Model the fold of this input.
Amino acid sequence: MNRQDIRQLSPLLFEIPASFRADMNTAARFYADPSFLPQLLADRSLAQLVNTACLPGVMEPALAMPDLHQGYGFPIGGVVATRVSDGVVSPGGVGYDINCGVRLLGTRLDKTALMPHLDRLVAAIHAQCPSGQGRGGLLRLNVRDMTQVLETGAHWALKQGYATEEDLGKTEETGCLPGADADHVGPRAKERGTDQLGTLGSGNHFIEIDVVEKIVAAPAARQMGLFQGQIVFQIHCGSRGLGHQVCSDYVKRFQQVVRKYGLRLPDRELACAPLQSEEGRAYLSAMNAAANFAFANRQVLTHNIRRCVAVTLAGKVADRSVYQIYDVAHNMAKIERHRVGGKPLSLCVHRKGATRAFGPGTPGLPPVYRDCGQPVLVPGSMGTASWVLTGTRHAMEATFGSCCHGAGRAMSRSQAKRTIRGTDLLRELSEQGIHVRAGSLDGLAEEAPRAYKDIDAVVSVVQEAGLAEKAARLCPLAVIKG
Done:
């Protein structure tokens, strides 16, 4: 693909028209700062976006957010809606880490109160929230508990004392997706998840202790319980080995399904099944179950963080409460109602490395957020800012209620490891006053700030395009990674 193949529809919106390739069923559009284009043309992300526009039943347009980069099948940052009536669902449009998501927790502490105790708190969280590839946690699920986690998600955690009703009320879908059936999750997936509830994993997953550096929209910030100088926590993780195995199992199965239904696809990584087929319904059920596991996982991590705060700061600060602000997924395919051409339609909205950004008044939002819109959590990388945004009515019309989920990679993981030394990065972060606990120096290098796009530039694109509004900017004090 060349620059001349791309039309610029507005300062921040670009289109590859359906006429670009004969097998496209719709146009492909992406949001970006013009300075992002050289990188997008250098990898396969735009080619992958075009491929998604070829899916059966795809609605116009196939979309990508400004954190767009190359993924498996679908580009990361892709938002693709297919008609429930005659469309398909594709595991590649969800990703291997089903319901990888972000949870934001608030406190009534300010930076001054926490700093004398930060080292001890980081050490306690690092010990109580295990991280690393394949690393197990403190819980081990029996068959009965595994079934309940898969089918009820965070509601299982509530029954076990790991959650509050308020937590569930401020979690996407109250932390439980309907239609989940543990029977559609294979035995190997369940085995891999047996001891991984309450664990971080590896890669770009983290727990951060942040300070609210700036409030941009005071009314929205008040609704969320955010104030300048406040200490907050971010949890970024998903469904661990269980979700990865669910994706692997169905990608393999769908390679056969494509032939069964005579589906013509430009890339075998787009393996999919009709939404109305037995196989399509089975995947959605298994995906929802894996998503419920992820909601429960972040909930158990929340419980462990609360315990660490309570114990570490006992006798040192008066108010050690940790409350939930919101929990949102960014690797999902969800059946939703959207207005298209003035008519409501049932669509399967694939958001791969993209998050919901539902605007004010949208059904399903927690009552406290119906006036300001859904909180949209956009974490940066170590050493950079993160943003709390709110969804808009325009996003409901333009992007099926979707927004970016992060900064987006500017380097592949292998390139980052070749060009960045973990020891140097650790020193740089320490010089910035950021406390880091990481499982390996190679893993640290993969997630270096310069391996990612400028988070402020990415967030400015979605704000200026009207997809979300800035509410608050966060800066890291400590990062715990696998």
Summary: The chain is about 35% helix and 25% strand. The longest strand covers residues 468-481.
